[in-house]
Amino acid sequence: NSLGSAYYFFGDLQHAKTYYQKVFKIPVTEFNSARFLSAINNLGLCYQQLQMLDSADYYFLQTIDFANTFSNEQFRGIATGNLAKNLLMKGKLDEAIPLFREDIRIATIYDDHGLIAGANINLADIYLQKGRMDSAWQAIIRARNEISLADQPQRLRLLFPLMSKWYSRNGKHELAVDYLDSTITATQKYY
């Protein structure tokens, strides 16, 4: 799992997949279940980044199944959010919404502010696409607060473009331009 994570961190997804797949050869126990769940989930993330969403779905569903077996609600929430992201990427917005809400519900139990922020960023994107401006704004505000609580400013590079779109669609063009500039700055700093 550690080697896979190192390759994943540096963007070498092919090598990361190879190491994550080796986890299936190890007997799973209560003792190593969290590492096992992490590896399967991360394998799904590799496929997600490679735009192989059906394969990613398979591993996220496997993560959920194993998380249920080991009563690990936290990993069930993480994998549910990743499955929701796949639905968003496939354009299945209505199907993604309840999964992101479930991700938020579980992440809230564990005070995982980063996950809450990420799910709200994705919900804001969906609501903007659907023209639900009030819901989009609520998700934007929650994401901004959770980013601060998580001390994960790198997530601003994903939030600022949504804020720019929101302001633009609400006729606040100066603020839209300001957040477009902020998007560029955040992207340069954190990508």
Layout of helices and strands, plus pairs?
Blueprint: H1 2-9, H2 13-21, H3 33-49, H4 53-69, H5 73-89, H6 93-109, H7 113-130, H8 133-150, H9 156-169, H10 173-190
Helix pairs in contact: 1-2, 2-3, 3-4, 3-5, 4-5, 5-6, 5-7, 6-7, 7-8, 7-9, 8-9, 9-10
What does this structure look like?
This protein has helices at residues 2-9, 13-21, 33-49, 53-69, 73-89, 93-109, 113-130, 133-150, 156-169, 173-190. The protein has 191 residues and is mainly alpha-helical. Helix 2 packs antiparallel against helix 3 (33-49), helix 5 runs parallel beside helix 7 and helix 6 packs antiparallel against helix 7 (113-130). The chain is globular.
Keywords:
191 residues; mainly alpha; 10 helices; 80% helix; 0% strand
Quick take:
By secondary structure, this protein is an all-alpha fold.
Strands, count: 0
State the distance separating the first and last CA atoms.
Answer: 24 Å
**H-E order:** HHHHHHHHHH
Helix content: over 70%
> What characteristic shape results from the CA principal axes?
globular
